[in-house]
Amino acid sequence: MAKRLLDTDDEELLQQLKNVFENYQLQTNDLPDYVKAGIARAQEQAAAGLLTPHDAVMEKYKRYL
Question: Which top-level group of life is the source organism from (predicted)?
Answer without folding.
Answer: Bacteria
